[in-house]
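Notes from the 1:1 (GR / supervisor)

We went over the backlog. Supervisor wanted to see one worked example end to end before approving the batch request, so GR pasted a single chain during the call. The sequence is below; no edits were made to it. Supervisor asked that the structure be written out right there so they could see what the output format looks like.
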Amino acid sequence: MTINTICVCGAGTMGSGIAQTAAQAGFYTILYDLNETVLTKAKISIEKNLNSLVEKGKISGADKEKTIQRIQFSNDLHTCLADVFIEAIIEKTEAKSALFNQLAELNHSECIFASNTSSLSITAIARLVKNPERVIGMHFFNPAPLMKLVEIVNTTYTANSITQTACKLATEMGKIPVICKDSPGFIVNRVARPYYIESLRLVEEEKTGFVQTDVLLEATGFKMGPFKLMDLIGNDINYAVSCSVYEQLNNPERLKPSYIQEQKVKEGKLGKKSGQGYYDYHSPADKLKIKHHLQTSQPINLSTRILITGGTGFLGAYIIRALIEKGYAVRAIRRSNKLPAFIPKEIFDKVEWVEGDVLDVVSLEDAMEGIDTVIHSAAIVSFSKKDRKRMYQVNIEGTANVVNMALEKDIKRFVHISSIAAVGRKGDGGHVNEEKKWEESKVNTHYAKSKYRSELEVWRGISEGLNAVILNPSTILGYGDWNTGSSAIFKNVYKEFKWYTSGLNGFVDVEDVAAAAVLLMESDISEQRFIINGDHWPFRKLMDTMAENFNKRKPVKEASPFLLNIAWRAEKLISFFTGKKPLLTKESAKVAVSKTYFENEKFLRAFPQFTFTPLEKTIGQACTKYMAQL
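Structure output shown during the call:
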């Protein structure tokens, strides 16, 4: 039988890939799909793939044009006149059989009907077709233009001539055909189930994380780790195959599909095609998260058991969420049973919580048992004189305790969350980077001094052999508890605070800092500090943007240095009589009028694919969430 025309039904990822392969092999190709939008996306994808091949010198520009000219994109079934039909539509037996019957009515009696299904029974599909002897399985692998293997799946109905023609066609398309009998999962998917299922089981049992699993298996010679591969295939497809094979083999416990993947499908986290799966494939503004590591030669620190101090704090809670979402096993220290409401409960349910305190050495020793990585984010942030003694104690003595215990327990990786305050400010509008030396200055607050001295404890630990890296984030913004810390700015603006200051400061999204902490934890970077800063905004612009998102009146009165000096003294007096913490202190007044530019180039050079979230987006999303909680 001579094959001139191939019709591929279904213009999704697999269908468009098969159509491109057929056209490149010289066949006139029809790509059919009812959905015009899907067809348009397929055309764009094919042209993009071909352009990439031209750029790499794999094909010429003329070859590209000829390939495109061979493809007809159609949403009209009556135009589907061909010698071979390869379906890649929805994974439902009845739908596939019905399509073949419709096509049989329109085409000649010798045409071949091939299914690209990865899990359904070819026999069951053929049984419902008028000419079952013309039905065969041609299972291509994703991405179809690159993957060489094609499983040729015979049924008890399939004619020998059809099998021979299918093998010849696969060869002419540049593939390696392998003939197999129709059985659950055929060959590759049957063999691959344990690769996926056991990897998922390890994560379910908290024996490891999905990142480590991928890295280790790739290091042993696998081209792609199981989680990376599931994201590429599509978690919906991979999960459906797992369920199909499991059911067709009478539910063996060893092949039971994982609830982790089921949850991914329910959440719409299907992998690359949806933008998020086990990894995040969103725009740079959404971080690309772990993707950077998988595309560079920089080795990943194989952390398996991570301890977080300060896990119930604003930043610490977001770091926990980032780690849990990546499959890490997390232990966290807390002083009470109260957990932040701004992080979903299901995240915290996956954390191993231990009672403790950074000032309690015994509890630290217990908390670090069996741990290989520590992220130290516990600290007190305050500009109030009442908090000063405890702040120095927690920030300096507490850090010294954590460092000492990390050395004693031979912790393999240590990430210290410091602050931009520890680098120091320049009140005159100057620029600050990681090379700036600490200088005693009136601009420095007691909080800054406590963070500088706590950082010295980490440097001391490094000199004693601790594998550590330091983050210096600027003022952190996002959705948190708006009664405390930097989140209180949102509450003041919501209450239509009238005053603004002339100062300028660095700000950064809390999720960006959490992502940066995890990136640095996974890297091999050591004995360095990194400023984590998103952008520089005047305080007035910051408060105006918050007011606009809250639909509240903007601040209208500028608080000059003179007025601020009066204001903080008045607040001090009110605090004395009421016992409430002052809204403004002498130290916060200093920060409010200072102007310092914090440079983030060092971090971006280390992680060139990382992009900080625009502050407009950070503020907009946070304001929406704050209003929703009212």
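Supervisor's comment: The chain has 24 helices and 22 strands.
Batch request approved.
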